[in-house]
Write a structure and sequence with these properties.
By secondary structure, this protein is mostly helical. The radius of gyration is 19 Å and the shape is elongated. The chain starts with 5 loop residues before the first helix and ends in a 9-residue tail after the last strand.
């Protein structure tokens, strides 16, 4: 079992704790374990953490749910990558409020290579389809990982072109079991 992910998942499930607040807490206390050991008063010392959020952190610690999630994703061949994991994509840490957890299927190391995102319309012309396919292939041939949302349309054609000559990475705004 991925015990290192458990405290991250416990915090992830706290109602009212969004990504910005989660990041502020990690910046201040360094680890989820440290956050979970704090009193509500101590949590409120972090800018952006009010009494209701602090109380929610202290009262909503669902370890059983976290263990269930770890078991569930392991059964699906999915890895949990936390913000403190060396495999967490460095470039993703540069955005405002990066996700504290990534659920990964495949080799996340492709995101450590040079990457470029290709996104576009779901409605496209023949020219758009051919251009996305060719661009994806040319970039992959050059050693660049094409990153997209895997949506129908331009995104999918860029992925297809890239897969003919290299690798792609897909970022979903949903769970891996229900894309």
């Amino acid at each position: 079992m991925c015990d290192y992910a458990l405290p991250w998942l416990v915090l992830y499930a706290v109602p009212g704790l969004g990504p910005a607040a989660y990041c502020a807490l990690i910046e201040h206390f360094e680890t989820p374990e440290n956050i979970l050991s704090q009193s509500p008063q101590s949590l409120c010392s972090v800018p952006g953490i009010g009494p209701s959020t602090a109380q929610s952190i202290c009262c909503n610690r669902d370890w059983a749910w976290a263990r269930d999630q770890v078991a569930r994703v392991q059964g699906m061949g999915i890895q949990i990558c936390t913000l403190s994991d060396p495999l967490y994509p460095t470039i993703l840490t540069q955005i405002y409020a990066p996700p504290s957890l990534l659920f990964v299927k495949g080799d996340i190391r492709v995101c450590h290579q040079p990457t470029i995102s290709i996104v576009g319309s779901r409605s496209y012309t023949a020219y758009g389809r051919e251009t996305a396919h060719r661009l994806g292939g040319d970039l992959a041939r050059s050693g660049i990982t094409v990153v997209s949302g895997m949506a129908v349309g331009i995104d999918a054609h860029a992925h297809r072109g890239a897969l003919e000559h290299g690798v792609t990475a897909t970022v979903l705004g949903s769970s891996l079991d229900r894309p």
